[in-house]
Amino acid sequence: MMDLFREESVHKVDTGLNTLVFILAWIGLILFGFLALSMLMALFSGSLNAVTIGGLIVFGGLTYLCYVLRNNQKIEYDYTFTNGTFDIAKVINNTRRKKLLSTEIKEFEIIAPTSDEGFQRMLQHPGIKKYNYFLNRGGGLYYGIFTHDGQKSILIFEPSDELVRMFKLVNPRNVKTDGNVLP
Fold it and tell me: What are phi and psi of 55, to 5 degrees?
């Protein structure tokens, strides 16, 4: 039998707003970081009062907020499929990789486009754990129902047509396509 392997990255479609937020977050990071540093220097030089401490807390918090906001503008998901095992990882700012999910495609009850009639019903299912691992809304989104760590779960993601075709090779009964994917 031939090995099945596919790795792909999902990037956020750049709307221009993401770039603007990224640049503003960088500016805020530098500005608020400088102000927090100056408050820290004032604190160490003997100016121990509520304004200095409050300024340090506020500007330090704003610096951290800008740091997090900047990093969240450059997120992508890596989908890796190897012989029936599907792994998802989150890559933040091209520097940090965090493994999010690893599961077997054969364990899925269904994988189908979000336009499928069962999608909304499954979203409303009580007690279902949701895994939203997509970046772009609209067409191309799929959902999958599976049991993870003993709990019924729904995965919403945006695979390529080739990845869906490979899923169908491993789990042909439970993978529905939107018609654009060849069996």
Answer: -65, -40
Residue type at 47 in one-letter notation: S
Give the Cα separation of 172 and 183 in Å (integer).
Answer: 9
Q: Is the pTM of this model over 0.85?
A: no
Per-residue pLDDT of the chain (183 residues; tens, 9 = 90+): 578 999 999 998 888 888 899 999 999 999 999 999 999 999 999 888 999 999 999 999 999 999 999 988 889 999 999 999 999 999 998 889 999 999 999 999 999 999 998 999 999 989 999 999 999 987 889 999 999 999 999 999 999 999 999 999 999 999 998 765 545
Q: Is 66 left (phi over 0), alpha (psi -120 to 50) or beta?
A: alpha
Token code pair at residue 120: 């909304």
CB 4 within 8 A of CB 84: yes
Whole-number Å distance between alpha carbons of 134 and 157: 5
Q: Strand, helix or coil at 17? A: helix
Dist CA 81 CA 96 (whole Å): 20
Across the beta sheet with 96-104, the strand order is 5-11, 75-82, 85-92, 96-104
Give whole-number Cα distances, 77 to 23, 96, 100, 129, 159, in Å. 22, 12, 10, 19, 10
